[in-house]
């Protein structure tokens, strides 16, 4: 069911509202029958996306609200989180940084709400990997990470002014 503008060929073109057979709805811009431009898509399961589309895919800036209460605000490319974005998880944790193929990838900061700790550094395919710093309330670790664990030369720096240098092996 569609209500809105059409082009000379009868395709959805311009602004319109659609109710899909699965119960989802879309309100926004179309181009030659496809969602293109700004729009809001409401999923039957309670999720909602508002932002830019290109040829029926999330593309450009947009915000996705998930049914569990989590939220992603940032860049999209071909329906994937890609570029810079902020993710608020349902448990209150946050990630701010770079994304690729729907995963944390590149430089980013992950904050653990329960402990107040945070990781600042490199990510590869959603995992802490490369140079980084794990910051706790009274100390921090600075070094390299591999698959989410410290590896190689690193140091603990304590708030009381002392440091502990060492090498991590896995």
Automatic annotation (TrEMBL):
Residues 1-20 are annotated as: Disordered. GO terms for cellular component: motile cilium; nucleus. The lineage of its organism: Eukaryota, Metazoa, Chordata, Craniata, Vertebrata. Residues 1-12 have a biased composition (Basic and acidic residues). InterPro entries: MORN. The keyword Cytoplasm applies. Keywords: Cell projection, Cilium, Cytoplasm, Cytoskeleton, Flagellum, Meiosis, Repeat. The gene is Rsph1. Functions as part of axonemal radial spoke complexes that play an important part in the motility of sperm and cilia. It comes from Buphagus erythrorhynchus (red-billed oxpecker). This is Radial spoke head 1 homolog. The keyword Transmembrane does not apply.
